From TrEMBL:
This is VOC family protein. Residues 23-153 form the VOC domain. PANTHER family: BLR8189 PROTEIN, METHYLMALONYL-COA EPIMERASE. Keywords: Metal-binding. It comes from Spirosoma validum. It comes from the Bacteria. GO terms for molecular function: metal ion binding; methylmalonyl-CoA epimerase activity. InterPro entries: Glyas_Bleomycin-R_OHBP_Dase (IPR029068), Glyas_Fos-R_dOase_dom (IPR004360), MMCE/EMCE_epimerase (IPR051785), VOC_core (IPR037523). The keyword Membrane does not apply. One of its GO terms (biological process) is L-methylmalonyl-CoA metabolic process. CDD domains: VOC.
Length: 155
């Protein structure tokens, strides 16, 4: 079954806003084990280590996707973080309030999932098409339960 192309009409940019200079930069992910999380993102997702530094009893790092210098993930590690939920079902994850996931655009969700499967990454639910936004989506979780979405624009 063919999915119809969806065009989302963006509102005009507001260049007169005092905040018109704002751009997305990074998302921070809290993890309990600095070295293990850094290695997971670098080995499983091919993220690159951009910078790392201590902050009090925490260790932090910026990581970026293999070929994207405009979006970074900041790892916040150390101390005694409270354990988060570890979802195996996407529907379960939609109930709590607060941060849910970050998204990475990919040319093919299915090809991405095949490669991640070969690297031992577990899918959270099944890939699905969401016709309302014209995308194919899939979710994974890092070993600490932080959700990551992959999105493919459908033709």
């Amino acid at each position: 079954m063919e999915t119809p192309q969806v065009t989302i009409q963006l509102p005009a940019r507001n260049t007169q806003s005092p905040f018109s200079h704002m751009r997305g930069a990074h998302v921070a992910v809290r993890v309990p084990d600095y070295e293990a999380s850094k290695q997971w993102y670098m080995e499983k997702l091919d993220f690159r280590l951009i910078h790392e530094w201590p902050f009090g009893d925490l260790q932090l790092a910026y990581l970026a996707p293999a070929n994207d210098d405009n979006f970074w993930v900041e790892l916040l590690a150390g101390g005694q973080p409270e354990a988060g939920a570890n979802y195996t079902d996407l529907d379960e994850s939609l109930h709590p309030a607060g941060y849910h996931h970050f998204c990475i655009d990919v040319p093919s969700v299915d090809d991405t999932l095949r490669e991640l499967s070969q690297r031992g990454v577990t899918l959270v639910g099944e890939a699905f098409n969401l016709s309302a936004i014209g995308k194919r989506l899939a979710f994974i979780a890092d070993p600490w339960g932080n959700l990551i979405e992959f999105a493919e624009q459908l033709a």
